[in-house]
Design a protein that fits this description.
Length: 134
């Protein structure tokens, strides 16, 4: 999973805008014949001491096989920055998912009212405001 390093606003005017650290994780990865679908869950950390969190949103990201293969190659290059010698295959795959999610979140820029990319990503934060966590 990845987490914001600063608090972000979430909620709505009707129930009130709140601030919390945001945690994002891949809940499910579904391999289909012609694409891969990731179910991504967004949580607000509601108690920093205990780590208690609440689900505030979910989204899906679909990749064609070609997109998946290209993205997988980029993740393979990034995973070399981590010491994986003590990891089993499952742990390495979990790390690959975290690295991929971080890369996706950090490069999926929000659009402004004219459809132009901004410098902000999900939850209106900057790309560098997200890191991999345990």
């Amino acid at each position: 999973m990845i987490q914001s390093t600063i608090k972000a606003q979430y909620g709505e005017l009707r129930t009130g805008i709140k601030e919390a650290f945001i945690q994002i994780e891949i809940a499910e990865a579904i391999m289909k014949q012609d694409k891969v679908v990731y179910n991504i869950e967004h949580f607000a950390i509601i108690n920093e001491e205990t780590g208690a969190k609440t689900l505030i949103a979910n989204s899906n990201k679909e990749l064609s096989i070609a997109e998946y293969n290209q993205f997988s190659g980029a993740v393979n290059a990034l995973i070399q920055d981590f010491d994986t010698t003590a990891m089993n295959d499952f742990e390495k795959e979990q790390l690959r998912l975290k690295i991929g999610l971080l890369a996706y979140i950090q490069t999926d820029f929000l659009k402004d009212e004219n459809g132009n990319s901004t410098d902000k990503v999900v939850w209106n934060l900057l790309p560098e405001n997200y890191v991999i966590v345990e």
